[in-house]
Amino acid sequence: MSSNVKHIILVMSGKGGVGKSTVSTQLALGLVAKGYRCGILDVDLCGPSVPFLLKLENQEVHQCEAGWVPVYTDESKSLGVLSIGFLTKSRNDSVVWRGPKKTAFIKQLLSDVFWEDVDYLIIDTPPGTSDEHITVMENIKEAPCDGAILVTTPQQIALDDVRKELSFCRKTGIPILGIIENMSGYVCPNCSECTNLFSSNGGKSLAEHFQVPFLGTVPIDPRVSSETSKYVGLTNPESPMAISFNSIVDRVINPN
Ligand SMILES: Nc1ncnc2c1ncn2[C@@H]1O[C@H](COP(=O)(O)OP(=O)(O)OP(=O)(O)O)[C@@H](O)[C@H]1O
Ligand code: SF4
């Protein structure tokens, strides 16, 4: 890992589709909005969605003497992204690799990217707990890893899967920065009333039970899909989603 990275945060989820990549990108954009320089390393080899979410599809990764150069979202280089999505032909191309090839590639992603003075590097990991996670954990031991954020949704099955993530983090010695409950209630686009579609407070109860921080809830907001390339806190500052993310970003910057 490049010595220019000050903080590393892993974003994990027990199952796919709960919004892990959305949280990773919004977190990075939120940190950038507060003046930090960030990077996102998308190691979700089978479903790299960060280039799509940041509208960076079809960009190419270049190499310099120091390693792979991330794709930057703007000229000021405040947010750099490295994802296998830049190396496959299309978003729908699947990576069919055996374990050793995946492990070698992840090691390369962790060691060969030239990050330029990054305050926060967000690592978007695959869903579940897999060999890829073990490879990441083993290869950031010497790096300044703050810990993992676990993303879940309110449904019982997603909450059950988060228990496995918690136990995985504890076994591998990764500190848990906290739990985020995404898609927690639906915000009506007309009157902004938030309706809980599933059970509520599951993420918070889980955090209390395991004595880890609860970072907050994020509601379902239909506008997020079309606006994810921008920080919701800047596009709709009054929206419930923006309010949620602003306080989550603050808790990540000031964990105590
Ligand atoms: N709070 C939200 N409100 C509305 N849509 C959301 C929200 N969070 C995520 N989504 C949408 O849900 C879909 C899945 O989100 P995302 O890709 O972030 O999940 P993921 O957990 O990273 O999935 P995978 O691990 O399978 O890649 C996306 O279309 C995203 O725009
Ligand atoms: S939440 Fe309010 S605006 Fe939205 S559908 Fe219900 S009553 Fe109508």
From TrEMBL:
GO molecular function: 4 iron, 4 sulfur cluster binding; ATP binding; ATP-dependent FeS chaperone activity; metal ion binding
GO cellular component, one term: nucleus
PROSITE patterns documented for this protein: MRP (PS01215)
Pfam families: ParA
Gene3D superfamilies: P-loop containing nucleotide triphosphate hydrolases (3.40.50.300)
Major localization class: cytoplasm
Location of this chain's protein in the cell: Cytoplasm, Cytoskeleton, Cilium axoneme; Cytoplasm, Cytoskeleton, Microtubule organizing center, Centrosome, Centriole
Residues annotated to bind [4Fe-4S] cluster: 188, 191
Entry keyword set: 4Fe-4S, ATP-binding, Cytoplasm, Iron, Iron-sulfur, Metal-binding, Nucleotide-binding
Cofactor binding: number and manner: Binds 4 [4Fe-4S] clusters per heterotetramer. Contains two stable clusters in the N-termini of NUBP1 and two labile, bridging clusters between subunits of the NUBP1-NUBP2 heterotetramer.
Cofactor: [4Fe-4S] cluster
Annotated residues for binding of ATP: 14-21
A GO BP annotation: iron-sulfur cluster assembly
Function, as annotated: Component of the cytosolic iron-sulfur (Fe/S) protein assembly (CIA) machinery. Required for maturation of extramitochondrial Fe-S proteins. The NUBP1-NUBP2 heterotetramer forms a Fe-S scaffold complex, mediating the de novo assembly of an Fe-S cluster and its transfer to target apoproteins. Negatively regulates cilium formation and structure.
Family in the record: Belongs to the Mrp/NBP35 ATP-binding proteins family. NUBP2/CFD1 subfamily.
UniProt subunit comment: Heterotetramer of 2 NUBP1 and 2 NUBP2 chains. Interacts with KIFC1. Interacts with NUBP1.
Protein name, UniProt field: Cytosolic Fe-S cluster assembly factor NUBP2 homolog
Organism name: Acyrthosiphon pisum
